Amino acid sequence: MKALLIVMPWASLHRPSLGAGILAQVGRDIPDCRISQLYANLEWADFLQEESGGAISPVDYNNVADRYFAGAGEWVFASALYQEPRWREREFRDHLAGEEGLDADLLCTMQQLAPRFIQRLRDRLAAESYDMVGFSTTFMQNVPSLALARALKSARPDTTIVFGGGNCDGIQGAALHRNFPFVDLVARGESDHIFGQLVAAVRSADSNLFRRIPGLCWRTSDGRSVANPSMAAPLLMKSVRRPCYDEYFDALVKTGLDAWVEPELVLEASRGCWWGEKHHCTFCGLNGSAMKFRSKAQGDFVDEVHEAVQKYRVLDISLADNILDMKYFDEFLPRLAELDWDVRIHCEVKANLTLDQVRALRRAGVVNIQPGIESLSTHTLKLMDKGVTGVQNVRLLRDCRQEGVTVDWNWLCGFPGEDEAEYEAIIGQLPALVHLQPPSGVSRVALERFSPYFERPELGFENAGPARVFQFVYDLPQSELEQLVYLFDSPRQGVGEETESRLQDAITLWRQGFGRGTLSFSRSDGQLTVHDRRAGWPVRDHLLEPGGRAEAYLALSRGRTPKSLETFLRDTHGITPGHGRIATWLDEFTANGLVFAEAGRYIALAVDESLATGTTQVAAAIEAW
Q1: 414-to-95, 282, 442, 460, 506 alpha-carbon distances in Å
Q2: Start-to-end C-alpha separation, the chain
Q3: What is the pLDDT of residues 372-425, one digit of tens each?
Q4: What is the 3-state secondary structure (H, E, C) of 555-614?
Q5: How far apart are alpha carbons 167 and 513 in whole angstroms?
Q6: For the sheet containing 132-136, what is the strand order?
Q7: pTM value > 0.90
Q8: Phi, psi (rounded to 5 degrees) for 462
């Protein structure tokens, strides 16, 4: 068996494919199976640069790849799939009129180049005579993968074409198999445990073997598409192989993209989502068929990280986990900290971390987190079922600023039941947060397959059908698109355009001011001094005397209501200022932008100078950001 796993555009250029890397390792344990990987995404970026004389660079590739919700990457390869130049170009140009940041002329040039790129790959792969070619398809890889699969099947009909990945989950995989007859097999769900069975079935061409593979879509002798029931129990992480990325790094050098790309190792400690098992975030469509949370033994994963760093000599690591296992604070993170490596780790976490937990992450080499902040409105966060408050999210931003950890987050709005008045109150306070990490922007929530909003219309989202862009991508009836795609349109919900526009403007100012000042405090003889050097604020030192205001401000570091603040001062410091003075202090702190107030709670915004261990790292991270 000579097999090839292909990673098509628009997969990330700076991260190898975890799925292909794992299956390559699984395949190497199969007797008489020679398996290799092809990073066609890297070749496409190199091809664009070469054919355009440098006018289309990897930066342009990344701009398309990062705009999944626009669907432009799929449309680019539709001309190659349907073998029609300028495929629905007029309609797509009209669609792009509402999308900022995408150049219609550049995309049309890419579409004109796509058929030639597919033909070049087809000729090369046909000459190499593979028995089985597998495509890993996630997000915007569907049409590029289909285009090459169609061309390769036409050139070598005996080659078995297999699809797998996130775009093949559940009903989507069955629809893909049914509508594209040149795709022989579709593996739905996790493929690690069925890959050996799949190779054996392809070798023998025995339909009885295909029939026994959980989740597989295959064809009977008369061409009828059959979808096997999926496996009920998810795969245990102790049986998941460590990925092989040799061919990614070879391709990076061969294409010359190593001059453009700073690679990251993608490693996987867990699958599923422990929060989603209890409270599935209403807008999230991830983990459609595999929500059950599972993680690797902590010691085993330390060894895996160590092995990968030593082998590939790469210190940037991105954990593919949807959410970090909280048990990893017990052993995994402390062991990484003891190793004292100069690694830079990215991971996804829940936003209600304590300062000690943020510090543990930083000591272990975690320099960037994606905590799913989404909003600073407690009411909106409840609509999302996020399990955190606005004040907790602000606390995390402050603690990360203090500890030298950058934060990836995006503000989501457009949820049914949002409160316009609450938005106005929050927008008015955003200038006070200018020293903290801002969101990348504001987006309206999309309707995603597998999300509670999709599955339960009573939550307030009306399904208006597949996202409009797919009408210009696929030549399929509406009924099939409804089963194939992941994104759907819905009537506008939540806050109005005027409020959204004000939020956008406030965040633009936040982004412009970030990195140009600080808000910190120092202590001396019981006196607290808050040093305000934020962009857009007067340069001031606020002196908070002991015996009341100083203790009150420090007590707000964890976020408190006026009542709990009064109780804390009395029980901890023996200070009894009374309701009136508490209210006066809170009004003063708020007016000076020293606290953030939301849902009846107040959180101090100043960073503790004595604990700010990450000042240098933050400065470097801000400059890079």
Answers
A1: 21, 12, 10, 11, 17
A2: 46
A3: 999 999 999 999 999 999 999 999 999 999 999 999 999 999 999 999 999 999
A4: HHHHCECHHHHHHHHHHHHCCCCHHHHHHHHHHHHHHCCCEEEECCEEEECCEEHHHCCC
A5: 39
A6: 34-39, 2-7, 132-136, 160-164, 185-187, 216-219, 225-227
A7: yes
A8: -90, 125
